[in-house]
Design brief:
This protein is an alpha+beta fold and 451 residues long. It is 29% helix and 15% strand. It has one domain. It contains 14 helices and 19 strands. It has a 4-stranded antiparallel beta sheet with strand order 14-15-11-16, covered by helices on one side. It has a 3-stranded antiparallel beta sheet with strand order 4-13-12. This is Reverse transcriptase domain-containing protein.
Length: 451
């Protein structure tokens, strides 16, 4: 099913009161060729009729009518219609770090265009014939698995460092974040747990399989009242969702009285399966390496609304799976899902994947795992038959090696280097809480950092 972009043109005809800015107005030069409005359309791979049938049979259709509407018309991202001063567009340069993975990003963009999730490229003049105002955000890339490369900076001694443990300040208040793989907080999120809310440019993080996830820094620019970022317009309270963190999973297993088997299911390109509403598109443009623009019709990594928007269809999918299969429960962490069943239950992952595919949910087969005694989920290996939870051996060794690097005499480190280390070590304390006190000095160093 596709919906042409024409309706959004009408919605954009009335320009709101602009945000005052002193920046020079962007100029449209030449006679722009047409093409943007003819090409762009909402396209959703989901089998909406199958979703409607499944939700009805599970008696939850009314509860998730908004999900069906979102698949058909796109999900609102909370971005209001706005402009900035007299600018016709605001398209800052991408981060230099994006060039580190330029070829992979370009390949990814081409795949998105071929799949009908992106449209373009278009010139600024072309887009200006459709949108009275539009903007892009600086692009970076996440290639999971390796620590980002930064130019070393001298680690300064903190001025009047604060005392106390620092533990319990809360990730949000202290500014500390764990790495993408290990992020654990209270389980109720209003941001994107897959992305560092970085203080500076987004970097390239390298994945074990070499895949690249382009992200847009929708929080850019920061601290400019005359140029508010896209994220600054979004009310994060409207997009809260609940993930199943360590405390919730461990509490469940601790209270479970029977041995169980566990399986893993991973959504393929989770965010990219979710279309956004057309009236959001002018503010989610992507600038390529040639300075041209791409119209992105899917949820992007880097937006405040990401977790909540994805959480609604993911919750609906979970309830559908629980209705059709004899499962005890399903734990979710963004696109990762831990299925729990009794040992004598006949449910198997082949049937679960088949049902999910009928709904149109793309599956990452390489990350799926059949039911067995133990599985790795949220960075830990869980075994309910033996009643154990542990870190993978290779991860333990990596943490020790990372600590050793910081202990070398004369070692240089940035604020972000320490921030990442603290997040990773904090992850370890979920199973070894007695180690929390040893993080005090690192928390104090971050709190007293001089920028």
């Amino acid at each position: 099913m596709t919906i042409l972009i024409a309706p959004i043109i009408r919605r954009c005809e009335e320009t709101p009161a602009p945000v005052e800015t002193q920046d020079t107005q962007a100029q449209v030069s030449g006679a722009p060729p047409t093409g943007v409005e003819e090409e762009a359309a909402i396209k959703c791979e989901m089998n909406i009729e199958e979703w409607r049938t499944s939700l009805t049979e599970a008696n939850i259709r009314d509860k998730y009518q908004d999900v069906l509407d979102g698949f058909q018309f796109g999900f609102d991202q909370g971005i209001p219609h706005h402009s900035i001063g007299s600018l016709k567009w605001l398209t800052p340069d991408n981060y230099a770090s994006a060039n580190q993975t330029k070829e992979k990003i370009e390949n990814n963009i081409q795949k998105e265009i071929s799949a009908g999730r992106m449209f373009g490229p278009f010139t600024h003049a072309q887009v200006a014939t459709v949108f009275p105002f539009f903007r892009s955000s600086p692009m970076g890339a996440v290639v999971n698995g390796r620590v980002p490369t930064r130019t070393p900076q001298i680690r300064k001694n903190p001025v009047n460092p604060r005392t106390g443990s620092g533990f319990g300040i809360g990730f949000g208040r202290s500014g500390i974040r764990s790495d993408a793989e290990n992020h654990q907080t209270s389980g109720v999120l209003t941001g994107n747990p897959r992305i560092y809310p970085a203080r500076g440019p987004l970097l390239a993080y390298h994945n074990g399989d070499g895949s690249v996830r382009p992200i847009n820094d929708l929080s850019y620019p920061r601290d400019r009242k005359n140029q508010p970022s896209v994220n600054s317009f979004v009310h994060k309270e409207d997009f809260t969702t609940t993930w199943d963190d360590f405390n919730k999973v461990s509490c469940f297993f601790r209270n479970l009285t029977e041995p169980v088997h566990l399986a893993l299911f991973d959504w393929e390109k989770a965010y990219r399966q979710i279309p956004t509403a057309m009236d959001q598109w002018p503010y989610l443009m992507v600038q390529d390496f040639n300075g041209d623009l791409l119209l992105d019709t899917r949820m992007t990594f880097g937006g405040v609304a990401g977790c909540g928007s994805f959480g609604r269809p993911a919750n609906a999918w979970k309830e559908i799976m629980l209705h059709y299969f004899d499962l005890i429960t399903i734990f979710r962490w963004v696109d990762d899902n831990l299925f729990v069943k009794s040992i004598d239950c006949q449910a198997n992952m082949d049937n679960i994947v088949k049902k999910s595919s009928e709904l149109g949910v793309l599956t990452n087969i390489t990350k799926n795992s059949p039911f067995q005694e133990e599985q790795k989920f949220i960075g830990f290996i869980w075994n309910r038959v033996e009643r154990t939870v542990r870190l993978p051996k290779d991860k333990i060794q990596r943490r020790i090696s990372q600590i050793d690097e910081f202990l070398k005499t004369g070692q240089l480190a940035t604020y972000t280097d320490i921030e990442i280390l603290v997040g990773r070590l904090n992850h370890v304390t979920y199973i070894l809480p007695q180690l929390r006190c040893y993080l005090c000095a690192l928390y104090a160093m971050l709190c007293g950092w001089v920028f």
